[in-house]
Amino acid sequence: IQRDSRFKKLSAEDVKFFKDLLGSESAVIDGLTQDATDDLEGFNADWMKKYRGQAKLVVKPQTTEQVSKIMKYCNDNLLAVNPQGGNTGLVGGSVPVFDEIVLNLGRMNKIRSFDDVSGILVADAGVVLEAADSYLAERGHIFPLDLGAKGSCHIGGNIATNAGGLRLLRYGSLHGTVLGLEAVLPDGTIMDDLSKLRKNNTGYDIKQLFIGGEGTIGVVTGVSIHCPQRSPAVNVAYLGLPSYEHVQKAFREAKGQLSEILSAFELMDTESQQLYVRATGKSLPLADEHPFYCLIETSGSNPDHDSEKLTAFLEHVMAEEIVADGVVAENETQAQNLWACREGVSEASQHFGGVYKYDLSIPLPDLYQLVDDCRARMRELDLISIDDESKPILDVVGYGHMGDSNLHLNVATRRYDKEVEKALEPWVYEWVQKRQGSISAEHGLGLAKKAFVGYSRSETMIKLMKQMKAFFDPNGIMNPYKYI
Ligand code: FAD
Ligand code: 2HG
Ligand code: ZN
User: Fold this and answer.
1) Is the pLDDT of residue 213 over 90?
2) Is position 264 within any domain?
3) 241 and 335, same structural domain?
4) Residue nearest atom 45 in ligand 1 by C-alpha distance
5) ipTM score of complex
6) For 237-257, what is the mean pLDDT?
7) CA neighbours within 13 Å on the CB side: how many for 368?
8) Do 240 and 315 share a structural domain?
9) Is 359's C-beta closer than 6 angstroms to any atom of ligand 1?
10) Which residue range(s) make up the domain with 430?
11) What spacing in Å lies between the alpha carbon of 429 and ligand 2's midpoint?
12) Same domain membership, residue 255 and residue 191
């Protein structure tokens, strides 16, 4: 890609405008009129250290009005902008490609209101997910989304990517739980759609376009979201299973027997768990190795009732030899350790130098076949070895949100390598297209999947998306060069 020459290059005068507007020293990182290379690094490089921009300016507004003035100035002057939350995105959408200004929401981090009768939380977009959840925990509620990056990602970033995560099975997608949004459009208009209503059928539901919009049509500044009651009884079980067939049977049984208390059903293959062990030095919860593992969580209101159900379920699946072995957490620490075996895989897979991540929706019966096929392909091409350091790939691992038919295929490498990338792309996307899956289940498209949207969307749909983009952002200044 080439830098779009329509965009103005940042000048000292522009920097002065932002400094005057935002006032405080810490609100602007200025790499144009002074040396700020080190300070800019964290905003220019993504979490995987795969994508790197060349932004010379980071602005950190504290109010919606400031965001509005920033956007109006950028639009009037044709300065390109990259909205950024916690910078944990996995598709290269959160960092600039060239010299786009980074508009980071980190200082917009206030809870605006919470009603413990309705469970409706209204907060700034830059509130860190874990902070929102802790605030809610003190008030007997839970954020309807949870994910491994909770300590860094923002709720605004979650909305911009339409993150799915570990609780979607129970609480549904953000398209249902988000009740209202406040967003700033590229020309500075404040879209005040911060409704607190669960029902509101008054014409087009425009906020939905911002959920999963990946910062291409506006900046999300405020969020109104419906948060459920926190369950007093939470159980976590970690199970070992002999095959993917058995995993599917266990999922059916879990839905049938745990039904309304089932809050997560996660899948990990043995390779993903071995990689976690290798990267962290920790040991796995079960003594013997099993080809597959599942993490099951239940959340309910009555500890005795839930334990009784979970015990009956476990007895049944063990007696039927669906599950080979398992362990149930006896306290909060044990539960966290079991969850770490699942949540830690994402980081473990990039621990050894590089990673190629594919976040896919695949019909459940076929879901794991991709991992087997991919591993076989990498062997055939002689690109993979866990011990031989001369091979680029350490391992191919599969894990994900079984309950949502969402597979994470991670190819852990010793370095970023064009040969590996060519062996994987578009092969993975063709595989998924043939099974009517989606090439992006929950992480978005960003820069990584820009060239591959056509594997999951028709010409007509892509054309409509481009028309929407042009309507909201006629100058194309919002997160340019990315998927749209
Ligand atoms: P960023 O990374 O900063 O930005 C992501 C995108 O959103 C960019 O395109 C950016 O321009 C845009 N954006 C950010 N904030 C705004 C805003 N206020 N207004 C407009 N646009 C904005 N995802 C899942 O779905 N499920 C998971 O289970 C999951 N687990 C993860 C685990 C780890 C360890 C990591 C590193 C990532 C994980 N992710 C997961 C990826 C996920 O997309 C992000 O973690 C999260 O949703 C992004 O939030 P963020 O604040 O970091 O956004
Ligand atoms: C998860 O479910 C995240 O752990 C990250 O969505 C997946 O790193 C990945 O590929
Ligand atoms: Zn995920």
Assistant:
1) yes
2) yes
3) yes
4) 88
5) 0.99
6) 98
7) 20
8) yes
9) no
10) 349-443
11) 18
12) no
